[in-house]
Specification:
Layout lengths: L6 H12 L5 H8 L3 H13 L19 E9 L4 H13 L3 E6 L6 E7 L2 H12 L5 E8 L15
Antiparallel strand pairs: 1-3, 1-4, 2-3
Length: 156
């Protein structure tokens, strides 16, 4: 069951999703609190696991990553050891930036970053398909991203 969130908690979470570097004073102002109670609320939200961490979002093109793709992967089988080995592969491969188990024809959808299409092909052939874990894959290049990150809706 999700924790109860009041208006101040929601204000803090909304603001932090858009500015993870906000000062404690800015956060306190947004939530209508003084800094000490604001700090305690943020710590509580972290302890509850609602705030999982703080990161810097980087521009993939400025990092030389000009090929982004969604790869739908179907595993060879659904044995526990196959799924565990695939999970280890996903965790250790830096080019795989997102992974989700999905319903439908494929078992997983991966978001993969590479320098260029040739680098992506090399990674798919040598990094994923050569493992013997994947029976079939289908790759969809991302042509343009119109929304790459959005705050989670704070429904209440």
């Amino acid at each position: 069951m999700p924790p109860e969130l009041d208006i101040a908690d929601r204000a803090l979470l909304a603001h932090l999703q858009n500015d993870g570097k906000a000062s404690l004073q800015d956060l306190a102002d947004v939530a209508g609190l003084s800094t000490s109670p604001c700090w305690r609320r943020i710590k509580r939200l972290e302890e509850l696991g609602l705030i999982k961490g703080y990161i810097a979002r980087l521009d993939p093109k400025l990092l030389g990553l000009h090929a982004l793709a969604y790869v739908f992967a179907t595993l060879l089988d659904h044995r526990e050891e196959t799924i565990a080995a695939f999970s280890r592969l996903v965790e250790t491969e830096a080019r795989i930036v997102e992974c989700a188990s999905v319903t439908g024809a494929a078992d997983f959808i991966l978001k993969v970053a590479a320098k260029d299409p040739e680098d992506l092909e090399h990674f798919l052939m040598r990094g994923i398909l050569s493992t013997g874990l994947v029976r079939e894959s289908q790759t969809h290049f991302i042509l343009r991203q119109t929304k790459t990150r959005s705050p989670w809706p704070l429904l209440g």
